[in-house]
Amino acid sequence: DNGKKLIGFGNYSEIFTTASTRLAVINSLTWVVLGTSITLIVGLTIARFADGMRTEKTAKSLIFIPGAISLVGAGIIWRFVYAGPPFKVGLLNGIAKGLGGNGQKNWLVDRNLGPFTPPSVAPGFNTFLLIIIFIWASTGFATVVFSAAMKGVPESLIEAARVDGATRRQAFYKVTLPYIRATIITVATTTTIAGLKAFDIVAATTGGNFGTSTIANEFYRVYFVQSRSGIGSALAVLIFILVVPVVVINRRAQARAEEMMAG
């Protein structure tokens, strides 16, 4: 006996019983749900309405630019947007002041939004502001991929739907979307995994403070800063466990999409 004690699943239990790590898990799941769903919706919307525009190439290039910036760079850019006192360069505070507010809010520090203060177990408003950065950086990639997939839809299918009396909107939902289903699933999977691994944006803006930490940030803090290898390893394994079903669902959905295409 060397004095070491078998912990078993104690580290995993600590993740969900410690307030900070539990909130980090909830924050990461919020990143996944909101970040992925809004990225898909905005990307599909832009791809649909940008196709055929006179300025299509210019518009898509401008939308894609944020995706070419590193996530750390994106975080630093948006720190100026969200900057609060004592700094006076915050764009969001400038807009708020122009709309009649006092323009003195610390957006990245305050969890509340006006009179609404979320409970300690729920993500704060500052977390949603960080997710906006993630969406801003991810939408360009989604738009370009969706646009390329839509251009690959056979024109004969769309024309057949129009001949049968379908409107442009109906043809989009009944023909285009089912046809590019595999592409949508791929983009959703990529964005979901990126959301689960979210680290750069949080590190560059809040450092994981003020209730904005994610699983990846919490892993870095406890493993490298606090040298708690046990809980740190458990957090790393948790990320892996959360990614596995996403990959499995993606593979099954891809197989179904291939069967539909073959049929």
Total number of helices: 12
**Separation, N- and C-terminal Cα atoms:** 64 Å
Residue runs with pLDDT of under 50 for 5 or more positions = none
**Overall residue-averaged pLDDT value:** 89
Radius of gyration: 22 Å
Q: Approximately how much helix is present in the residues?
A: over 70%
For the biggest sheet, the summary is:
none
Any idea what the shape is? globular
Helix/strand-derived category reads: mainly alpha
What portion of residues belong to β-strands? under 5%
Number of extended strands: 0
Can you describe this structure?
With 263 residues, the protein is mainly α. Helices cover 71% and strands 0% of the residues. It has helices at residues 10-17, 19-50, 56-68, 71-82, 91-98, 125-151, 155-163, 168-179, 181-196, 200-205, 215-225, 229-262. Helix 2 (19-50) runs antiparallel to helix 9 (181-196), helix 3 (56-68) packs across helix 6 and helix 9 (181-196) packs antiparallel against helix 12 (229-262). The longest helix is centred in the last third of the chain and has 34 residues, at 229-262. The chain starts with 9 loop residues before the first helix and ends with a helix. 30% of the residues are buried.
